[in-house]
Amino acid sequence: SIPDLITALTTAEQRAATSLKWRTHEKLLQKYACLPHIISSDQIYYCFLHRMLTIILTNNVLPVQKAAARTLCVYLRYNRKQEQRHEVIQKLIERKIIFPYWNRLRFLDTCEVIMELFSKSFFCKYFFLPVLELTHDPVANVRMKLCYLLPKVKSTLKIPTDKHLLQQLELCIRKLLCQEKDKDVLTIVKRTVLELDRMEISVDAFQKRFYENDLLDQEKERQEHLLLEMEQLEKEKQQNEGRSTNINNKIFEKKRRDSKTSSALAKNITLSVPGSSSATSAGKEDKKSKLVRSQSFSTQALHPKYNTLDKC
Q1: Contact status, residue 29 vs residue 10, Cβ threshold 8 Å
Q2: How far is CA 271 from the centre of its chain?
Q3: What is the pLDDT of residues 188-238, one digit of tens each?
């Protein structure tokens, strides 16, 4: 019944997208976040994930775009294949270059959801530097949204592991303070600088004040590593199945060849037996013909002698 469910869900989403009821479309996309608990990650990847990307890029309604971005992040969170995850991450990072500028705003919204759903190390590995690149964005609204997001970005860092990322963040803030020409953005930058100075960065060592947040982050990281291990186990299982099928095919081919050779030998034996009997019969006939010839020669040789004796 799962293929019928997938077709019904895709048709429902297309009808909601073509209708003018954007609130229905938004609620439907929010509910689609429960699909990883029902169907496999491959089915989600091929049927729903790319659809969420197109909604984020093409839809004009902001709540619908945000709902699609959150559902996309949930799909990415529960995806089991590393190649598919890398592909989606690459598309998300490339999308921030696409014009118009609101694609970059949606990219920042998506990064905010990723910080909520994924571990700190995941965000720092894939999205930290692409987010900081938007400090040079030509649109003031994008820079403003980035400034609001910078405290959350800083909270994903761990010292001393992410020391180089902290240096990059400080460098970007200095550039914003020195080069920013828009007054509104500059005031927000100054506020964020004060907020960032008050912030305390979590250290890799255990600390009581960050106890709950660290535990949550460790749980997220553990689940991400578990997904990678499951993917590795599935690959090993497929390789072992492939090897066993190859061995079975080789055994089957060997048996078939043996049966062919045995049948060919049996045919040769049956052909050789009647041939020998015919050869013996032919030899007997030759002997008989030789005897007949010898008898005829002997009679021909004796007849003239008898004739001469009769005459005498």
Answers
A1: no
A2: 59
A3: 999 999 998 888 776 655 555 555 667 787 778 888 878 777 777 887 888
Q: What is the 3-state secondary structure (H, E, C) of the chain?
A: CHHHHHHHHHHHHHHHHHCCCHHHHHHHHHHHHHHHHCCCHHHHHHHHHHHHHHHHHHCCCHHHHHHHHHHHHHHHHCCCCHHHHHHHHHHHHHHCCCCCCHHHHHHHHHHHHHHHHCCHHHHHHHCHHHHHHHHHCCCHHHHHHHHHHHHHHHHCCEECCCHHHHHHHHHHHHHHHHHCCCHHHHHHHHHHHHHHHHCCCEECCCCCCCHHHHHHHHHHHHHHHHHHHHHHHHHHHHHHHHHHHHHHHHHHHHHHHHHHHHHHHHHHHHHHHHHHHHHHHHHHHHHHHHHHHHHHHHHHHHHHHHHHHHHC
Q: How do residues 256-282 score in pLDDT, each as one tens digit?
A: 676 766 666 555 555 544 444 444 555
Cα separation, 13 vs 26, whole angstroms: 10
- 202 has which bridge partners? 158
Q: Where are the domains of the chain?
A: 120-199+215-231
**Binning pLDDT at 50, 70 and 90, where does residue 68 land?**
very high
